[in-house]
Amino acid sequence: MIVSARRIDHLRLQLARMASWALLVSAWLALGALGYRHLPLWAGGMLPLALWLTCMAGCMRLALTVLPRLRMSMAIAVPGWVCAGALWWVQKGGGGLAVLVAAVAWAPLLVAASSTVRQLRPRERSASPLWPVTLGLLMGGVASHELVLGAGSANGTAALAWVAAVLLVALRSISTSRPVAGPSSACRQGLFDCSLPLPILPAASGGLTATTVSARPMNWDEFLSIHAARWAMLPMMATLPTMTAWCAASATGTTEPSLLLAMHLGAMVAPAWLMRALTRLGWQPRAAPTSAALLIAGGVVLLLGQSLRSLMLTTLLHTAAWSVAWELGLRQRRDPQPMPVRAVTLFALAAPLCLLLLGCTTAALGPQTLTWVHLMLALFGLLSCWPWFAGKLQLSPLN
Q1: Contact at 8 Å (CB) between 8 and 177?
Q2: Would you state the CATH architecture of domain 197-389?
Q3: From residue 227, how far is each of 187, 196, 201, 292 by CA, in Å?
Q4: Domain 1-194: which CATH number of 3.40.50.2300, 3.30.530.20, 1.20.1250.20, 1.10.540.10
Q5: How many CB atoms lie within 10 A of CB 119?
Q6: Would the pLDDT of 196 be above 80?
Q7: Which of 147, 40, 145, 140 is nearest to 100 (CA)?
């Protein structure tokens, strides 16, 4: 029985998505854990993550402008080997320098992986990425969980980087049987499936600029709730090794670190699966109010019980808000168009600065920093409800 070319192309796309998400998740987990272990804690161990995001912004600019026809097979293979070698070097006593080398190599590897996904994406609307995302999260979590838990080597993450690079090179080398979307259908930030919190900026009139991807204008209330939910990914992923260390050191036995890691990764996909199931049942949930409700719920939990357990529950709720904003955002977009390269690059550079600031304040203040960060996210969710409150006030009989 001959498998149809269309099914082969679909399988290639899903495998590329899975490998790319595994690289993304393992980068957050491994670089955060290794930075916490091998680099100065004045920045909360977040120097590798900040360097990785900075290099990724530069690689995005090069891939989209200076080197649009770069041989992506080499752009995948070389950083993949360097990244795997640097992670093995960590085990041989390379220390902080080896971690920084791995962070630099991870950036072009991930951008090239994103390019592979875009190359394989068909012109027509492709299938939901939930299955490859879930499998990629599982792979990245399994490969890097020992690093996050503080007892283990980087060999699993190094093997993942090498295997993912080989798989992506192989997927690119297979000739396609149908037209693909190409760079013009890239996600707004040039990364696969819009997973990072990069911008859709409202225009002065209150709608979106011509370079955005929504089928209808986005109001400021939607902008606040959805983008606050997207930004929740940064503190959640960056401080996950720190939170597991707090759990391990807690005298009250708050939560097992391994269980905490599993719950965080599960919260990234379980709400997305729930939204998909509700959509199939005929209910059409909207990203903005659902994300706002989860953000506000997280803030309420923090205010009612200011403890490490409450902080963990709030983080899970805000992670769920990110999952909802991501999955429903994928469903609601039509005819995606890339953002201007300069705007994307400048905005991407803000993420490393936020991480360094978060790391410095976390090192100085401990869990209190994350408490304020999540309260700020909850405040954005509450502000996004202002049009609803204003409408209720206008309908009130009181003058």
Answers
A1: yes
A2: Up-down Bundle (1.20)
A3: 16, 10, 10, 10
A4: 1.20.1250.20
A5: 18
A6: no
A7: 40
- Give bridge partners of residue 214 from the DSSP assignment: 333
**For the segment 330-377, what is each residue's pLDDT rounded down to a tens digit?**
665 544 445 555 666 666 678 888 888 988 898 888 888 999 999 999
Q: Where are the domains of the chain?
A: 1-194, 197-389
Is the pLDDT at 69 greater than 60? The verdict is: no
Residue for token digits 């690093």?
Answer: 147
Q: Cα–Cα distances in Å, from 360 out to 100, 103, 119, 312, 366?
A: 18, 19, 39, 20, 10
Asked if residue 207 has pLDDT above 60, the reply is no
Tokens read off for 104? 């630099």
Average pLDDT of the chain is 77
Instruction: Tell me the C-alpha distance between 320 and 318, whole Å.
Output: 5
pTM, entire model: 0.84
The DSSP call for residue 251 is T
